[in-house]
Design brief:
Elements (H helix, E strand, L loop, with lengths): L5 H25 L7 H7 L2 H15 L10 H17 L2 H19 L1
Helix pairs in contact: 4-5
């Protein structure tokens, strides 16, 4: 593994800090006191719904624990979590049912 020079690391950290501040400032500082259009508010409602699957999908399809090969416990847990979330409309029910399925199948099959 190559060592990163301290100046390069600080440039990256400063760039990320300014970028993060800039994104927040656009919404809070420039637009914060104005009403947003309806079409934008409608799209922003789905941001949280899109983030969780985007974080979880790579861990289900290419799990590092199996060397990148899909396996039955993770696919089953994803299917159960999807079904439970669709049926109950509750994020916590989906998360806990998927986690229970994953750990239960890992215990039974392992």
């Amino acid at each position: 593994m190559t060592e990163i020079e301290p100046s390069t690391m600080w440039i990256v950290i400063a760039g990320l800090a300014f970028g993060s501040f800039g994104l927040r400032f656009v919404f809070i500082g420039l637009v914060g006191d104005r009403p947003l259009p309806g079409w934008l508010l409608r799209h922003l409602r789905y941001t949280a719904v899109a983030i969780l699957p985007a974080l979880i999908a790579p861990l289900v399809i290419w799990p590092q624990a199996t060397g990148g090969q899909p396996d039955v416990p993770r696919m089953s847990a994803a299917a159960v979590a999807l079904a439970a979330g669709y049926w109950s409309k509750n994020v916590l029910v989906a998360i806990f049912s998927g986690a229970g399925t994953l750990y239960g199948l890992l215990y039974l099959l392992g």
